[in-house]
């Protein structure tokens, strides 16, 4: 059988073996002749089988030796033979004479329990266990032995063996104990055995309570409640058909009924020999007691520790436990007729934590008759072994086989067999491969995971168990486990269909466990028998074992089995359903998992030191990576991942979350696309298009800065719009948000909008958005000039008027465009285009006049030329255009008023205009009327003396009366204003000086104790002086010396 092997340790001893005891490096063999053979025992031999060598042989009596025990603390060997227990010194068994323990007459069984004296509770009595240290020196490790002997209707206990086995505790019993089971304790520091199980018969037992203080012993009957139901009738039988059941010579379930009746009959009197009770200690104080063909697990208070019992095909002859397996010797199964040959006994093996049957073993058949197995013992293990040694191959059990044929027994005698197990890691792999991950977890928990490799430890196995739970539909339970152990999200997503969620990450269901690191060929569930004959044998075995107890008929049981098989087949078909059929619970569990992982990965990203995550654009897309590479992402907390690995994990999480939202909660897709995310666009864009989530896809493109794709999709959507009002806004708003870095894309994309609607297109460059304001205006102007010139004019007017652009290039460009537009209109005076040009030339101060003046023909646009000449400082030329070319004297005065506002000189611009009126060039006429109007309206802005000198002689006083009155009044006004201002300034100065005096005034308080800092005498009623700025007070006659000191101190 895989994982276990039987090998002969001592074949054909030429004598019948009746007792075995292995302790440390010694093996003691008791014979039916009364002899005791001592062998050396080395479990670490090269061949894997322990090596033994005969050291001595001593005849201890004439009767068969029934039991042998070793007390390491007292260095004695206890031998049970013919109802008497004899103690022999270990140093010299051959020559030393044994001492019979007189208090243990008519003994049936004995057991030696080792404990640490420091673990006893309370104060011990003087004549009890406390005296053990005086009469019996503990072993080198400080441990003490307790000997418990079951005699006829009593039990005798020696706690701390004294010389001569004196001062025993004993208590009368209603029945004779046939076997004693002491619950196991820690091998590092075994505690005081407070509870011992006394087995009377296969159906009855009692609890012996031992106390280090009086009263030392007390007995209570084990409750006679029926043991819990067995699971082996279902689980174990299925294993038998699958190759992990009982021995190959017959079906375990088929032989269950007959074998059970055979063993039971022997006990109740139908046979010739009464059955002996069996039991063994498990771990953590738990014991296994045989109840006919069932094994019940009890605690120290006699309560059942498990909800199920162990089921055997028949009552076992002996049981033993070596972590993590339970070993049972089962007698030969009864044949179908008296002429059928007798079968051999077998050694049945069950996994302790789950009671899973792992099969059975038999020794080779003898040449004649059959065999009987007996003396089943567990080999002792060194307490100092490392965890790694605990899982290595080792011999776990020893037992003897004896021929039933007398002639063969006389010729060959008994043999000793050693049962060895392979590496327990291989056992774990076998269980996982069979689909029994829960059993593998139980094995590792029982042994302890310290000695196993990482792929056989509990975190990994519990992860595999979560995968099997997921396959069974226990989605939330599986997801919780994945979260606990930080399982790679790529593996979790791979459990879902490829068409909708997992994509390239998908793993076929039969390879789920392998993807999670299980051994090749691992199954999600145990294999179920498929043949009709196997199902029929299963049903028959069940009927024979449970019909009487459950009250079921044969037909009812068969119907139940067939119904179960039918439902299993239906479940299998459901598992093989369409790829896209995902239960709602599975989707909810995945959303829960990915939402949790999203929070964790966001926290890990935020905690990264600079420069943080690498840019997504610097790495290949997630969809370009092989699935195997993503499946191998580490199962670690996200804070321990490298930045690049963390980015890949984030991509897997966000991509999976968006996909599951598309399937389960489409309303959440938009919110995920609008925030910062690490979705792989190539994987999800087709899914979004298929569900017509165009706006969400555009948001995703925008967040990933894939603006080209987004604008292309917006263009395609715009072409499908019939209403032109709804065609452009989305694209325009998108372009407005891009900013200078995407200028080329903005310009290229806007062309199709300019072709269809220039007004709407212009909003791309004139919107009140920070991204639009940041666009390079020079490039925009060049693009608009080449694309749509009117839009360029509107754009320049926007940036100059609204945004207060002062760059000369932009003002020049706008003036040039307006000039070209005015030229193109064919009319100058009064046309809107010409008026816009004049308005701009008058309002703007940042264009270069000389450049524009060269573009205007000499004989056209005189008003524009006048504005440009004025900007160049050529006021006389500009005024000549207003006076003689345009004959617009009011315009000439407005021009002069504008210049005077910046250059208020009485001999300046207005005087120049008057000179042009009154003293023109020879070719121009004298304009006396406009001149008189000018001095009348603007007389205060003209120098009166210059005006009077310039007027012609024939001008009467009446003509200039208004000018003279206004001039005189203006002069008087100025003098009065100057006088008033001087008075106000003087008054203000006096007010400020008064306020300063008030602020500089200082009051000091003189008391009888105040001392002059100069002469160090009291000030008293003397005249004083106060020194600024700190207010020091001195005598008036001390003022000058103290002021000198202050000045010197201040430097």
From TrEMBL:
It holds the Pfam family Vps39_1. The keyword Transmembrane helix does not apply. It comes from the Eukaryota. InterPro entries: Clathrin_H-chain/VPS_repeat, CNH_dom, Vam6/VPS39/TRAP1, VPS39/TGF_beta_rcpt-assoc_1, VPS39/TGFA1_Znf. It is a peripheral membrane protein. One of its GO terms (cellular component) is endomembrane system. Its main location: membrane. It is found in: Endomembrane system. Keywords: Membrane. Residues 14-363 form the CNH domain. Coiled coil: none annotated. The keyword Lyase does not apply. CHCR repeats lie at residues 765-926. GO terms for biological process: autophagy; endosomal vesicle fusion; intracellular protein transport. Residues 118-137 are annotated as: Disordered. Belongs to the VAM6/VPS39 family. This is CNH domain-containing protein. It comes from Dioszegia hungarica.
């Amino acid at each position: 059988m895989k994982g276990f092997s039987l090998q002969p340790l001592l074949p054909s001893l030429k004598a019948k073996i009746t007792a075995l005891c292995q302790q440390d490096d010694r093996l003691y063999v008791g014979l039916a002749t009364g002899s005791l053979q001592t062998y050396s025992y080395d479990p670490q031999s090269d061949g894997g089988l322990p090596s033994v060598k005969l050291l001595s042989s001593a005849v201890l009596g004439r009767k068969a030796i029934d039991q042998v025990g070793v007390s390491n603390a007292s260095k004695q060997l206890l031998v049970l033979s013919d109802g008497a227990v004899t103690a022999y010194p270990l140093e010299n068994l051959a020559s030393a004479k044994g001492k019979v323990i007189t208090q243990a007459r008519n003994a049936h069984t004995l057991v030696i329990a080792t404990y640490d004296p420091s673990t006893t509770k309370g104060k011990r009595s003087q004549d009890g266990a406390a005296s053990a240290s005086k009469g019996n020196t503990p072993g080198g490790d400080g441990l003490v032995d307790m000997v418990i002997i079951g005699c006829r209707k009593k039990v005798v206990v020696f706690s701390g063996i004294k010389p001569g086995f004196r001062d025993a505790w004993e208590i009368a019993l209603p029945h004779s104990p046939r076997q004693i089971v002491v619950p196991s304790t820690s091998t590092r520091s075994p505690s005081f055995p407070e509870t011992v199980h006394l087995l009377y018969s296969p159906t009855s037992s009692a609890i012996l309570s031992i106390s280090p203080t009086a009263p030392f012993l007390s007995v209570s009957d084990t409750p006679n409640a029926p043991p819990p139901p067995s699971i082996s009738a279902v689980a174990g039988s299925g294993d038998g058909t699958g190759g992990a059941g009982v021995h190959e010579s017959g079906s375990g379930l088929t032989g269950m009924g007959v074998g059970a009746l055979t063993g039971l009959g022997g006990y109740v009197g139908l046979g010739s020999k009464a059955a002996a009770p069996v039991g063994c200690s498990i771990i953590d104080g738990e014991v296994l007691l045989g109840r006919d063909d069932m094994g019940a697990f009890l605690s120290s208070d006699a309560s059942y520790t498990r909800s199920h019992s162990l089921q055997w095909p028949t009552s076992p002859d002996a049981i033993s436990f070596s972590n993590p397996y339970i070993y049972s010797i089962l007698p030969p199964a009864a044949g179908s007729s008296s002429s059928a040959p007798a079968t051999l006994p077998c050694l049945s093996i069950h996994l302790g934590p789950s009671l899973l049957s792992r099969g059975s073993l038999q020794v080779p058949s003898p040449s004649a008759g059959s065999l009987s197995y007996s003396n089943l013992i567990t080999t002792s293990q060194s307490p100092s072994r490392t965890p790694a040694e605990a899982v290595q191959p080792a011999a776990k059990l020893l037992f003897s086989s004896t021929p039933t044929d007398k002639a063969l027994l006389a010729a060959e005698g008994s043999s000793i067999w050693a049962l060895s197990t392979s590496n327990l890691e291989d056992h774990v792999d076998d269980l996982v491969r069979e689909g029994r991950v829960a059993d593998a977890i139980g094995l590792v928990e029982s042994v302890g995971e310290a000695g196993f490799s990482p792929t056989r430890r509990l975190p990994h196995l519990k992860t595999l168990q979560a995968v099997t739970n997921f396959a069974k539909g226990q989605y939330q339970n599986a997801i919780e486990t994945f979260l606990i152990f930080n399982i790679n999200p790529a593996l979790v997503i791979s459990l879902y269909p490829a068409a909708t969620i997992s994509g390239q990450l998908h793993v076929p269901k039969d390879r789920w466990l392998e993807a999670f690191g299980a051994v090749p060929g691992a199954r999600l569930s145990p294999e179920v028998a498929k043949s009709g004959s196997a199902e029929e044998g299963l049903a028959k075995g069940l009927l024979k074992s449970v019909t009487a107890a459950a009250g079921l008929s044969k037909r009812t049981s068969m119907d139940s089995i067939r119904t179960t098989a039918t439902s299993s087949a239906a479940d299998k078909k459901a598992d093989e359903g369409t790829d896209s059929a995902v239960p709602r619970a599975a989707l909810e569990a995945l959303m829960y998992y990915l939402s949790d992982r999203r929070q964790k990965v966001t926290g890990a990203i935020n905690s990264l030191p600079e420069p943080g995550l690498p840019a997504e654009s610097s790495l290949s897309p997630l969809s370009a990576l092989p699935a195997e590479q993503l499946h191998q992402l580490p199962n670690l907390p996200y804070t321990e991942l490298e930045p690049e690995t963390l980015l890949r994990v984030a991509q897997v999480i966000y991509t999976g979350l968006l996909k599951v939202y598309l399937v389960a909660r489409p309303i959440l897709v938009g919110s995920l696309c609008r925030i910062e995310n690490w979705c792989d666009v190539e994987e999800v864009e087709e899914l979004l298009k298929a569900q017509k989530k165009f706006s969400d896809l555009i948001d995703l493109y925008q967040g990933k800065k894939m603006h080209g794709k987004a604008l292309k999709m917006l263009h395609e959507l715009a072409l499908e719009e019939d209403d032109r009002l709804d065609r452009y806004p989305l694209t325009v708003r998108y372009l407005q948000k891009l900013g200078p870095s995407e200028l080329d894309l903005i310009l290229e994309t806007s062309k199709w909008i300019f072709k269809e609607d220039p007004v709407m297109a212009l909003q791309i460059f004139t919107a009140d958005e920070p991204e639009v304001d940041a666009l390079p205006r020079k490039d925009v102007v060049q693009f608009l000039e080449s694309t749509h010139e009117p839009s360029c004019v509107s754009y320049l007017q926007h940036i100059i008027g609204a945004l207060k652009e002062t760059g000369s290039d932009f003002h020049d460009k706008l003036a040039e465009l307006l000039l070209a537009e005015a030229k193109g209109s064919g009319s100058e005076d009064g046309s809107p285009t010409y008026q816009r040009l004049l308005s701009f030339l008058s309002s703007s101060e940042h264009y270069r006049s000389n450049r524009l003046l060269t573009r205007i023909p000499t004989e056209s646009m005189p008003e524009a030329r006048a504005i440009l000449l004025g900007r160049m400082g050529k006021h006389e030329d500009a005024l000549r255009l207003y006076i003689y070319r345009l004959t617009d004297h009011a315009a000439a005065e407005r021009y002069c008023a504008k210049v005077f506002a910046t250059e208020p000189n009485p001999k300046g611009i207005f005087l120049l205009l008057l000179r042009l009126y009154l003293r023109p060039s020879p070719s121009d006429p004298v304009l006396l009327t406009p001149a008189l109007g000018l001095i009348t309206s603007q007389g205060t802005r003209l120098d009166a003396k210059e005006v009077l000198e310039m007027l012609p002689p024939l001008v009467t006083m009446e003509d200039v009366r208004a000018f003279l009155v206004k001039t005189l009044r203006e002069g008087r006004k100025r003098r009065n204003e100057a006088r008033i201002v001087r008075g106000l300034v003087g008054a203000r100065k006096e007010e400020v000086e008064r306020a300063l005096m008030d602020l500089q005034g200082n009051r000091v308080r003189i008391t009888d104790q105040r001392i002059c800092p100069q002469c160090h005498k009291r000030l008293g009623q003397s005249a004083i002086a106060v020194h600024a700025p700190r207010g020091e007070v001195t005598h008036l006659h001390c003022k000058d010396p103290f002021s000198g000191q202050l000045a010197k101190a201040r430097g």
